[in-house]
Amino acid sequence: MGRGFSQIIQETPDYVHLLSKFLSYKLFNKRSPIYGSADITNVCNLHCEHCYWWLNRKENEDLTVEQWEKVIDEKFKKQHVFVVTLVGGEPLMRPDVVELFTKKFPNHACVVTNGNYPLPRFDKLYFYWISIDGPRDIHNEIRGPSAWENTRKNVVDYVEKYGEKAFKDIWISMTINSKNYHTIETVIEDWKNYTNKIGFQFHTPFMKGDPLWLPYGEKRNKVIDEIIHLQKTKYKDYIANPKKQLELMRGSWGGKGTVPIDCPTWTIISVDHMGREKLPCCIGSAEQDSMKPRCEDCGLGCYSVSLAFGLRG
Ligand SMILES: C[S@@+](CC[C@H](N)C(=O)[O-])C[C@H]1O[C@@H](n2cnc3c(N)ncnc32)[C@H](O)[C@@H]1O
Ligand code: SF4
Ligand code: SF4
């Protein structure tokens, strides 16, 4: 999204905080979260094969808008986080909470969605991340019948309804796994005319031997080579991942077993659907006895990008 002059003036304090966070880290190793992530609902309209969220899900409860406002002030505003990402469950099942976040973080709140509901136009939304897991048939195998068709319709409707720049509000997020790793360029071709950018990450397992994890080695390296090549040649402005981050994804970068080591977990403060802090990271849980992600095999984009820019655990 482009930023006008008055918007830049309004946002100057945000950038000052961001700069001071970077400088405090570089000069004094002081760690203060830069991003926020919130599971704004504990409900989902899909049950995807690969999804970490179902692994630790227990309660049906969700917070009210007033309760979320308190969480925002106590967890995110106090620490001057720069961008907040809304996740779940399916965040579009709580448009009232999305609206609140876009008001509290104008142009600094993203929504990650399965795109199976019509996409509302939030005045001050940063952008939507739309999750796509392959071409139609593979996506539907992972996410359920007609999931791809619903998402397609809702994205096209949004772009056609809200004018020639509306495509800028939509980014694709593809989580690469053993079922879809060979479909990178097809996914790009499917979506490039309706969306602004695509970001890739890799499936992160919660148990050894997860068949969806794409093992380190030849196949994975080939996928990374392909993305780097496509970025260099045909889709320079469309593929969002920095090359350094993609290089990290060739092997284990985050930690050992289920313990984060180099992973800069401190860069993102993550809360669950009750506003409780999740550990060790945004795909973890607030419960002590929860299932833990395998840091050793991690492919998450949001933390590896920070490590690629020199922020360490
Ligand atoms: C949990 S979903 C919540 C938002 C929304 N329901 C959606 O599907 O986009 C957030 C993102 O995590 C991704 N995801 C789910 N399980 C994952 C895993 N085990 N490893 C990496 N990413 C995963 C999803 O594909 C989606 O892009
Ligand atoms: S739609 Fe999102 S939260 Fe729901 S099961 Fe799928 S990946 Fe998980
Ligand atoms: S992002 Fe989470 S799973 Fe990945 S290395 Fe960091 S703490 Fe571990």
Question: What report would you give on this structure?
Answer:
With 313 residues, the protein is α/β, with parallel strands linked by helices. The mean pLDDT is 95. β7 and β8 (259-260) form a beta hairpin. α2 (65-77) runs parallel beside α3. The protein contains 9 helices and 9 strands. The two termini are 30 Å apart. The protein has a single domain (34-308), classed as TIM Barrel. It is globular, with a radius of gyration of 19 Å. Helices cover 35% and strands 13% of the residues. A 7-stranded parallel beta sheet has the order 6-5-4-3-2-1-9, with helices on one face. One iron/sulfur cluster is lined by residues 204, 254-255, 260, 263, 265, 280-281, 283, 293, 295, 298, 300, 303.
Domains (count): 1
Stretches where pLDDT is under 50 for at least 5 consecutive residues are: none
Compute the number of strand runs. Answer: 9
Secondary structural class: alpha/beta
Mean pLDDT over all positions: 95
Small-molecule binders here are: S-adenosylmethionine, iron/sulfur cluster
Distance between the termini: 30 Å
Order of helices and strands: HEHEHEEHHEHEHHEEEH
Beta-strand content bin: 5-15%
Radius of gyration, whole Å? 19 Å
What name goes with the CATH superfamily? Aldolase class I
**Can you identify the CATH class?**
Alpha Beta
CATH domain fold name:
TIM Barrel
Q: In the CATH hierarchy, what is the architecture at level 2?
A: Alpha-Beta Barrel
Strand order of the largest sheet: 6-5-4-3-2-1-9
Quickly list its features.
two-stranded antiparallel sheet, binds iron/sulfur cluster, alpha/beta, 313 residues, 9 helices, seven-stranded parallel beta sheet, single chain, binds S-adenosylmethionine, TIM Barrel, 35% helix
